[in-house]
Amino acid sequence: MKRLALILSLFMTVAVASGQPVAVWLETCHDFGTFHEQDGKVTCQLRVVNTGDADLLILRVKSSCGCTASEFTRAPIAVGDTGVVTLTYNPKGRPGEFEKDAFVYTNGEPARERLQIKGNVIPLPETLDEQFPVRVGAVLYNGSTLPLGEISRGRGRMTYMSGYNASTDSIIVSASNVPRHLSVSMVPDTVPPGSTSTVTIYFDSKQAPLWGLNSDTFTITAEPLSGSSIEPSGYSQVEVMAVVTEDFSILTDRERERAPEAVVSCGERLNFDAVTQGEVMRQTFTITNRGKDRLHLRRLWTGSNGITASADRQEVKRGKDMTVTVTVDTNVYQEPLLNALLTVMTDDPAHPSRTIRLVGEIKRM
């Protein structure tokens, strides 16, 4: 019996000696409120009390992003004592509202705790100019031209704009005159002072009206929520550009073997006879289908004012051709020499897009 009592006594002594630390946090969130970027770094301390029956150790602190620096009590925290985690936020180049997390790992219970800091940064004037160069009323945006690159027909692509309310009033933002193949949303659509808003734009190539380059615009409007506000209303055009292409990667070997083949009679250059300024220049060339399946003309496009191109048909069978007429109105095209580019787009998978240089002399009167 004495031996058993001794064993039980030793077991209880070990159990007490290897007790469990318990971490009770007095604060898990700190709100810095609104402060200016030029004020520099802001710092707070979040405290933890050890309510267990063994020393508490803070093992490490992991921040959610590089802009949050942390320090912490590294010595063992005795039972009943308090430890501290210090979090620092650097607002430089980070205007607007923020919420950042830091995860604290300990040897106690709980083993991990999430701490949070938040606030709202009023940026430097030069920071605003650099990051948000486009003004729409009292709201500043980081751009007004959105290039999306190439998108295969049938697919979509999303892009974003950021806006910042640089005023002291809440501002309502909205989009109008949006083409049907674009979707535009504002989150939030009522922007508090010193806060940001995200404009999400989705381009649906299946609904896009043109093959090749599509250049579309919609209108952003910003107006104060309060009718008595002294802040100005405003609007601006946003341009969205995308090149819609055909996805030939889905063709089978048989479909490729039977695919249309476009042969342009003028090659890469179309020459015009010399004309006097004020006259109209016309020239034609043919596109012949040397493939097996029907050839479809997708688009004739030139970016030069005063130059148009049209075809007498939009598709041709094997061995047949279509005639393309290019017209240059020298009343609109004011250069002394004709030197422009015409893009021909077809469903020929080997050469879906061809560029033809238009050349000629325009004599001044």
Task: Looking at this protein, list some descriptive labels.
single chain, 365 residues, mainly beta, Immunoglobulin-like, 3 domains, 6-stranded mixed sheet, 5-stranded antiparallel sheet, 3 helices, elongated
CATH class of the largest domain: Mainly Beta
Number of helices: 3
Q: Please report the distance between the alpha carbons of the first and last residues.
A: 128 Å
CATH third-tier fold name of the largest domain: Immunoglobulin-like
What is the approximate shape?
Answer: elongated
Helix content: under 10%
Report the major sheet.
6 strands, mixed
Derived structural class = mainly beta
Q: So, the CATH homologous superfamily of the largest domain?
A: Immunoglobulins
- The poorly predicted ranges are 4-17
Strand count: 28
User: What is the beta-strand fraction?
Assistant: over 45%
Q: Based on the structure given, which CATH architecture of the largest domain is correct?
A: Sandwich
Number of domains: 3
Please tell me the overall pLDDT. 91
Report on the structure:
By secondary structure, this protein is mainly β. The protein is 8% helix and 53% strand. It contains three helices and 28 strands. The chain has helices at residues 2-17, 125-131, 253-257, and strands at 23-25, 29-36, 42-50, 58-63, 68-72, 82-89, 96-106, 112-122, 134-136, 139-141, 145-152, 156-165, 171-176, 182-187, 190-191, 196-204, 212-224, 234-245, 262-264, 269-271, 275-276, 280-289, 295-301, 307-311, 315-316, 321-329, 337-346, 353-363.
